[in-house]
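A quick aside before the break. I want you to see a complete sequence-to-structure record at least once, exactly as it would be stored in a machine-readable document. Don't worry about memorizing anything.
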Amino acid sequence: MLGRPRPGHRPRTRPRSHAHAGHGLRHTRQHIRRAIEDEGWNPQLGAFTQAFGSSELDASALMLPLVGFLPGDDPRIRTTVAAIASKLTDARGHVRRYLRDDFASEEGAFLLCTFWLAHALALIDEVPRAREVFETALSCANEVGLLAEEISPTIGEALGNYPQAFSHIGLINAARAIGHAERARRNS
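That is the input. The structure line, written in tokens, reads:
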């Protein structure tokens, strides 16, 4: 699916825990939030990272604004999105999940991660760039509009599961976020 995780607490799973903790578990929600904000944030890198205390970027950190854990105007979200766009985007404009994994193999860029970036860019009000990233990912669809799981960073060939439902869900969510951001701009 999206590669095998490394050991350690993952900031990307904690927002879901935070969201599901509900009102009756306010203390648990606050504890989870503090852990993500204190241990998932790397001030030297200027980004939320792959694991608590890590210096490795992970595109799944883009989920923080997507699930509403932090708003798009939070400076940490803005710098996390910028870091991922800068460091995890390949020459073809597709986003890798992370730079290193526990395998010695070359992994492709994940279309879901590319749609996450487009979605996050819309949430931080970088709408033209969001549309550009979205169009790059959308261009990977085959002649009937199906998307693969991954794209080869060297030749642009579809890799992994095909068709991949997660890629299509990312497309729908990013399209909705970009459409909403474009309407908000027109109405302001």
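Two observations worth writing down. The radius of gyration is 16 Å. The beta strands are 41-42, 47-48, 109-110, 150-151, 158-159. We'll return to this after the break.
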